[in-house]
Amino acid sequence: MESAPWESELTLAMKAEFGDSVLEFSTHRGQEFVVAKADSAIAILEYLKYEADYDYLVDVTAVHWPKRAGEEFDLVYILYSFARNHRLRVKTRIADGYKPQTSVTVHLTANWLEREVFDMFGIEFAGHPDPRRILMPDEWKGHPLRKDYSIVQMDDAWVKENLGIESGH
Question: I need a labelling partner for 57 at 20 to 30 A (CA). Which of 29, 33, 82, 104 fits?
Answer without folding.
Answer: 29
